[in-house]
From TrEMBL:
SUPFAM superfamilies, alphabetized: MFS general substrate transporter
Cellular compartment(s): Membrane
Gene Ontology terms, MF aspect: myo-inositol:proton symporter activity
Record protein name field: Major facilitator superfamily (MFS) profile domain-containing protein
InterPro entries, alphabetized: MFS_dom, MFS_sugar_transport-like, MFS_trans_sf, Myo-inositol_Transporter
Major facilitator superfamily (MFS) profile domain segment(s): 1-69
A cellular component term, taken from the record's GO annotations: membrane
Membrane topology: Multi-pass membrane protein
Entry keywords, A to Z: Membrane, Transmembrane, Transmembrane helix, Transport
Keyword Membrane in record: yes
PROSITE patterns: MFS
Gene3D superfamilies: MFS general substrate transporter like domains
Length: 108
């Protein structure tokens, strides 16, 4: 058992282990592909390719992942359980409400 997880509830431990496994798989893919890409594209091309993947990931996160700053764990859990819909895909009337809320909070 992992010593750093002893005091953490089992539900969170399970999620943490899953994410750790995904991270290890991603590292394996990158490390296996690196030499192949370096031979085909050269060092600069390989780093540009990985930078492009990182940029795509950043854009994905910016537009599709909800903002959870300042929220408690329970609030985040509720948000994700009820089904989060990114602003990008929200109905037009919802976008108008979000803009109204943002404008009101800025003026306060």
């Amino acid at each position: 058992m992992d010593h750093e997880l002893e005091d953490i509830p089992a539900e969170i431990q399970r999620d943490w282990r899953r994410s750790r496994s995904s991270f290890k798989l991603a590292n394996l893919i990158v490390s296996e592909a690196y030499l192949t890409f370096t031979k085909a594209l050269g060092s600069a091309g390989t780093f540009l390719l990985f930078a492009g993947f990182s940029l795509i990931g950043l854009i994905f996160i910016y537009f599709l992942v909800p903002e959870t700053k300042g929220m408690r764990f329970e609030e985040v859990k509720k948000l994700l359980q009820k089904g989060f819909r990114p602003k990008l895909f929200a109905p037009k009337d919802t976008k108008a409400k979000l803009n109204l809320r943002n404008n009101m909070s800025r003026s306060c």
